[in-house]
Amino acid sequence: MKNIKLIFTYILIFVVLICMYFASLILSSLIPASPIKENVIKSSEFLKQYGEKEIVDLKYKKEEIFLFTDALMLNTAYSTDSEKPIESALLARKNYIPGQTQTISKDREKNLGASKSHTDKYGNIFQVDELYGLMHGENITESFEYARYWHGYLIFLRPLLLVLSYKRNKNINVNTYNFANCIYELSNNQKDKF
Question: With a cut of 50, which residues of the chain have pLDDT below it?
Fold first, then answer.
């Protein structure tokens, strides 16, 4: 009896958490695109400086940081339709602009699609250029769904884009990581003394 009660408790916690996550995603989808537009434009300009990847010199080696995922996340954040928050939360479209979008491609099990002007003859997709084009008036009429994943980052990214651009978000992430790493190292040093 005790085990059944424990299992029921875990199932209940799981269901409550899923509902909270889904509700949070819907709430973030209620933010209209217009207040975040300026920061997404600034973000696309910042990413455009580097292209699809940024090369960071770590003195002992050069590291490539791929930015196409960042561009995809920003595109998805901007393309959320606040008039249809549940649909937007579930489908996670990119390049979706009500009134401009003519074609919506469903999610496929293969590579995520891109507008023809941002795909080369080998099928390579250029997310940074596509985001830049979308934010600078290029008439992109093709939208692509990316529903195979849960896009929980939108819970944080969309509200942050109300006040910060990608560059500022990146700085906050780096500083938060460094602070957490310092706390971790200090706590490990304290344990080693005993």
Answer: none
